[in-house]
């Protein structure tokens, strides 16, 4: 669909939309990483986004950045697909391609199942402070099922994913 939109934009004199798509997705990836306090190198992000958009690049490669780009791209372009356990687990696998978070091994592509609590703790040795403790692992499948049901039931009604309809409302011909 990106190629079709690109062609139609050029046909009506708008020029290439690739730069707009590159900038928008790059900004979203950088902002998403910043939420976690991570500053990603702009050249790595732009290179990953260019590969995702099918553009030529010889820029740097980072599997974790590629995973984040894939997740954000899927969430924003395939928003009409159901959010389910499989999709969430695939996103998590993409975000942790090596099966680690830092130097810690993590359960990838599945819900956690360890007995010890998952906590957000400040890192001052001897004066640790627990800021958050997640529900016990044994409760996660039921909690996630409840969340996914709520998400599906509360999501707004969407138009069918039909490019012709999109073109009609945007003023472009679908032919």
Description:
With 175 residues, this protein is mainly alpha-helical. Among the domains are: 1-79, no CATH class; 112-154, no CATH class. Helices cover 50% and strands 6% of the residues. The strands form two sheets. It has a two-stranded antiparallel sheet with strand order 1-2. It has a two-stranded antiparallel ribbon with strand order 3-4. The longest helix has 18 residues, at 18-35. The chain is globular.
Task: Provide the fold topology.
Layout: H1 2-11, H2 18-35, H3 42-52, H4 63-77, H5 85-95, E1 100-101, E2 104-105, E3 119-121, E4 130-133, H6 140-154, H7 163-170
Antiparallel strand pairs: 1-2, 3-4
Helix pairs in contact: 2-3, 2-4, 3-4, 4-5
Mean pLDDT: 81
Strand share of the residues? Answer: 5-15%
Give the end-to-end Cα distance, rounded to a whole number of Å: 13 Å
* Helix proportion range: 40-55%
Total helical segments: 7
Indicate the low-confidence ranges by residue numbers: 162-175
Major sheet attributes: 2 strands, antiparallel
Largest sheet: spatial strand order: 1-2
What are the salient characteristics of this protein?
mainly alpha, 175 residues, two-stranded antiparallel sheet, 50% helix, 4 strands, globular, disordered C terminus
In short:
The chain is mostly helical and 175 residues long. The chain is 50% helix and 6% strand.
């Amino acid at each position: 669909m990106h190629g079709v939109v690109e062609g139609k934009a050029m046909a009506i004199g708008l020029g290439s939309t690739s730069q707009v798509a590159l900038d928008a997705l790059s900004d979203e990836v950088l902002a998403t990483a910043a939420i976690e306090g991570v500053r990603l190198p702009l050249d790595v992000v732009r290179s990953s986004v260019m590969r995702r958009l099918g553009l030529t690049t010889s820029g740097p490669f980072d599997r974790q950045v590629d995973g984040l780009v894939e997740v954000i791209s899927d969430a924003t372009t395939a928003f009409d697909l159901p959010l389910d356990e499989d999709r969430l687990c695939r996103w998590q696998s993409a975000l942790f391609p090596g099966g680690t978070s830092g130097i810690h091994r993590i359960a990838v592509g599945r819900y956690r199942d360890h007995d010890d609590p998952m906590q957000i703790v400040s890192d001052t040795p001897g004066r640790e402070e627990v800021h958050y403790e997640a529900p016990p692992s044994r409760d996660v499948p039921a909690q996630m099922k409840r969340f996914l049901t709520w998400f599906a039931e509360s999501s707004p009604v969407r138009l069918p994913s039909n490019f012709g309809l999109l073109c009609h409302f945007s003023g472009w011909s679908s032919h």
